[in-house]
UniProtKB/TrEMBL annotation:
Transmembrane segments: none annotated. This is Secernin 3. It comes from Peromyscus maniculatus bairdii. InterPro entries: Peptidase_C69. GO terms for molecular function: cysteine-type exopeptidase activity; dipeptidase activity. GO terms for biological process: detection of temperature stimulus involved in sensory perception of pain; proteolysis. Belongs to the peptidase C69 family. Secernin subfamily.
Length: 418
């Protein structure tokens, strides 16, 4: 199952520079799937009798939801990755193990990412939200548009102060509190360090014959087919990702995380039928007087994309150029044969046109990449200045991400037309 995955990373002080938690994720999906970046404001829900429609099922609503920024496959309700106004970040991974994956429609892992962000103001509370929803509604359903593709999920959840790994198999789960640096990929990775767990998780493994009840309990050994002794010596992307984090340990910045997500030799920057369709990096200062900054590409191929910053402030401008056209999923899925609608948002369209120009001309490719890196460098320096000087121009920040998107589109248009 190695190709069907993502990679999610976190680094905590003292592995990072400047007392910051750094979060990063590549979303690896089908090559033609469009991922959009959207902002959803905080909301109060007075009519709790009205159910919340997720991708496939309806669930109970809560009295209040927090503002979120999401990078999500444009056809569904949930998200591959995102952040909320309290500095909580979540990314999920596809995992497979001994337990058969349920194809029955329930909550997708991507729904659980969004629900955790909307309903929790700390990383551990987000973990609580996800496992409570798992227990009540379960996880399952098709995870790809128009194709059969189902999996269980692992999650990396971070805030300004701490991070958690949550790995699930059906309704059973184990959680590990992160120390230093940590990453997850498409395999179970929690072994004997288990800080929280489903109350019946060990007993279920024993009943299934996955654990003899005498040896130290190892979640990965019990619930997956992985030989945990070889986990850190293999050529898997999980192993390669950990090596990259460890290589930069003590000096990790948001620029470092972006370069890790762009790394091709490790396979983390994926290309092929499944490729890196979108990327995210977040910097979460432990100093609560400083803003959390979240960078999104909204486009595939991170080495040929720009990481653009988003900061939560009141009255944020809507992210129109990274919002896909809306279609009714149920009506479309009912049609036979199923034909995927064109979900490309404006940034995606211009980016794809630019990639075509780049592939046809080395000279144009270099010019365009130079301009893209110059834009990104200027933005990174501006964000670092905000973190160093503690000065936030709110009037400018409300339009920060949309303006950066427009600047990126200008680069594409000038090279497409030349």
């Amino acid at each position: 199952m190695e190709p069907y995955s993502c990679d999610t990373f976190v680094a905590l002080p003292p592995a990072t520079v400047g007392n910051r938690v750094i979060f990063g994720k590549n979303s690896d999906r089908l090559f033609d799937e469009v991922q959009e970046v959207i902002y959803c404001p905080a909301a109060v829900h007075n009519d709790l009798g009205k159910r919340l429609k997720c991708t496939y099922i309806e669930i109970d609503q809560v009295p209040e939801t927090y503002a979120v920024v999401l990078s999500r496959p444009a056809w569904l309700w949930g998200a591959e990755m995102g952040a909320n106004e309290h500095g909580v970040c979540i990314g999920n991974e596809a995992v497979w193990g001994r337990e058969n994956v349920s194809k029955e429609e329930a909550l997708l892992g991507m729904d659980l990412v969004r629900l955790g962000l909307e309903r929790a103001d700390t990383a551990e509370k987000a973990l609580d939200v996800i496992v409570d929803l798992l227990e009540k509604y379960g996880q399952g359903g098709n995870c790809a548009e128009g194709e059969e593709f189902s999996y269980y999920n692992s999650f990396l959840i971070a805030d300004r102060n701490e991070a958690w790994i949550l790995e699930t198999s059906g309704k059973y789960w184990a959680a590990e509190k992160v120390q230093g640096v940590r990453n997850i990929s498409n395999q179970f990775s929690i072994t004997t360090k288990i800080d929280r767990e489903h109350p019946d998780m060990r007993n279920y493994a024993k009943q299934k014959g996955w654990w003899d009840g005498r040896e130290d309990f190892d979640f990965t050994a019990a619930y997956s087919y992985i030989n945990t002794a070889s986990m850190m010596t293999s050529s898997s992307r999980y192993c390669q990702g950990y090596k990259l984090l460890s290589k930069h340990k003590g000096n990790i910045t948001f620029e470092t995380m972006a370069e890790i997500l762009r790394d091709k030799p490790s396979g983390i920057n994926m290309k092929g039928e499944f490729l890196t369709t979108a990327s995210m990096v977040s910097v979460l200062p432990q100093d609560s007087s400083l803003p959390c900054i979240h960078f999104f590409t909204g486009t595939p191929h991170p080495e040929r994309s720009v990481f653009k910053p988003f900061i939560f402030v009141p009255h944020v401008s809507q992210l129109l150029d990274t919002k896909s056209p809306t279609f009714e999923l149920e009506r479309l899925m009912a049609k036979k044969p199923y034909i995927k609608p064109d979900r490309r948002h404006l940034l995606y369209q211009k980016h794809q046109q630019a990639l075509e120009v780049m592939s046809n001309s080395k000279e144009n490719s270099k010019t365009m990449l130079d301009h893209m890196r110059k834009l990104e460098k200027e933005v990174f320096e501006e964000m670092e200045s905000i973190l160093q000087n503690k000065h936030l121009d709110v009037d400018k920040i409300v339009n920060l991400f949309p303006q950066c998107v427009k600047d990126e589109i200008k680069i594409y248009q000038s090279n497409i037309s030349s």
